[in-house]
Amino acid sequence: MNAQRARELGGIAQNLRITGLKMVQSAHSGHIGGAFSLSEIMSVLYFEKMNIRPEDPQWEDRDRFVLSKGHATVALYPTLATRGFFPIEDLSTFRNIDSYLSGHAEMKHVPGVDMSTGSLGQGLSTAVGMALAAKQLGKKYTTYAILGDGEIAEGQIWEAFMFAAAHKLDNLIVILDSNKVQLDGTIEEILNTGDITKKFLSFGFHVISIDGHDVQQIAAAIDGGNATEGKPTIIIANTVKGKGISFMEGKSKWHGKTPNDEEFKIAFEELYNKNLKLEG
């Protein structure tokens, strides 16, 4: 990836944050922290790497995507709308009682959503099933799943890891949003998961650790996962919760809190200023 393309993807990521913040402002609700840690990952997946057709969301040979940390729709919906799956104007209805854009993504209502998620720990099992189905049907698509690092405390996650490795699902790429903060505090405080690299290696995964805000590293890691044969890949994306807004970064209270008017003003100023730097 050349420098120009990297700047473009970085700009897309920043625009996803701005669009997501507008959604939260309109709804007076939404999970900002764990969505903003995903922006660069979503930019690279949907605007560079995934084989998809927004005009045909159910295209049989599309790559699949499962947002296992299903509350991070403030990252997902702006991505899908910007990519062309549904009108971007509809984002202003986020979390309205009569809107199809609920707080957790629903596959029956939102074009481009491959799996309804919300109960943490369950999305990965579905992604594993999608990857296994592709193998059995002779399909070439890749299944991507994004997990939260608080989510991996769920036992079902590790059952899915064992199954994926046992069945040599090299068409599965798991991305761990390792922002090291969850709802009530840091991962270390609540349930320290220890050396996750060693854990994933011991479960039979190809493991890649990256800066989850560096679009070039994200793209290279995805390429590495797709080139790996005989085992699934997990990309440990080291990220910052609330990335891009100084008073939110790394703070658990911004997991799902809505800013007040003054905080919104500061947040938008910081995001727009960063955008100007990227464009310059």
List the strand order in the largest sheet: 1-2-3-7-6
- Terminal CA distance reads 19 Å
Tally of domains: 1
Q: What would you say the CATH architecture is?
A: 3-Layer(aba) Sandwich
Beta-strand percent range: 5-15%
Q: Give the averaged pLDDT, no decimals.
A: 94
What is the count of DSSP helices, taking H or I runs of 4+ residues?
10
Would you kindly provide a written description of the structure presented here, covering whatever features stand out?
The chain has one domain (3-279): Thiamin diphosphate (ThDP)-binding fold, Pyr/PP domains (Rossmann fold), CATH 3.40.50. The chain has 10 helices and 7 strands. The protein starts with a helix and ends with a helix. It has helices at 3-27, 33-36, 39-49, 73-83, 123-137, 155-166, 187-191, 196-202, 215-227, 261-279; strands spanning 64-67, 143-148, 172-178, 181-182, 185-186, 206-211, 233-238. 48% of the residues are buried. The chain is of the alpha/beta class. The strands form 2 sheets. The protein has a 5-stranded parallel beta sheet, sandwiched between helices. Strands 4-5 form a two-stranded antiparallel ribbon. Strand 6, helix 9 and strand 7 (233-238) form a beta-alpha-beta unit. The mean pLDDT is 94. InterPro entries: THDP-binding, Transketolase_N. Belongs to the transketolase family. Keywords: Thiamine pyrophosphate.
